[in-house]
Amino acid sequence: MNTAVPVVVVGASAGGVTALSALCAGLPAHFPAAVLVVLHIAADAPSLLPNILGRAGPLPAHHPVSGEPLRPGHIYVAPPDYHLLVEPGGVTLTRGPKENRSRPSVDALFRSAAYTYGPRVIGVILSGMLDDGVSGLYTIKRRGGQAVVQRPEEAEYDSMPATALREVEVDHVVSAHEMGALLTRLVTQNFFPPEDNTMTHDEERRLDVEVAINREDSAFREGVTALGRPSLLTCPECQGALVQIDEGPLLRFRCHTGHGYTASTLLSEVSKSVEEKAYQVLRTMEEEVMLLQRLGQQHEKAGRPDEAQGFYTKAREVMASTDGIRALAMSNQRLSTESILMQRSED
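User: That's the sequence. What structure does it adopt?
Assistant: Structure tokens below.
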């Protein structure tokens, strides 16, 4: 196993194709590290990213197969609906539980790289929404690796890099066009720093469990419920109980089946659920109105006008009470910690 191959892991989301193309354009033909990329994409959408990145620069890019060895000067792109994980000397693809509603997950890739390669890892956060990848980048730093972030003001979507800068002790902040030269310098000049693992025993245990979860092991059997303290919140995906995980400055959650969320993503999902539930209540009430009206019509045809009027009156009362539910559904906003902080700064 070639565990000496340096590893660069890159995460992006919205606006990430432009940034990834600029990064790859700046890498030399003989780049001495393996590059692994996760771009959050829909599970049922074909990915043309390897073709795009292969044309953007001199390095070949492709979707790997599970068990494929890591080679310097190659770009490995996570395929849709699979986590891309780093193993000693190679990669593996899994369909472990989603993180932040995403598979592939930036955090899953970053944690597996930190777990396997420690200080031989460089983590890169590019354009994207919310705070995907920040937990994984924090883990890379705790295991002695280096953290590189795209300059937020030049990113198409600045939330991911801005959150990384706020929550992680980042080593370098550069534009996407400068990143290739920076990564080349870091890999060629000083890539094997002394072991600088600052993780506590509890953090190491949590990393063991979370990497195992992404490898498709049972979250419950691995002891996910012992990674934090019970919360009163439920998983938006499976409605399982969520465990609250305090990770340095970060607040995260996992359910016993393995789904993971940052606090910001969970807030976004919960606020989205408010609108969905409001429309479900609205639908149910309007169906009640339709049924009451048809019962009224039935009694009217049967020559019972007084009874028919009772059904019509009740239908009008229920219809009137839907106004508040409709207003709630239409006025509800999908929240995130970033949107709240931005609104606060504008006020």
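The chain has three domains: 7-189, 218-258, 268-346.
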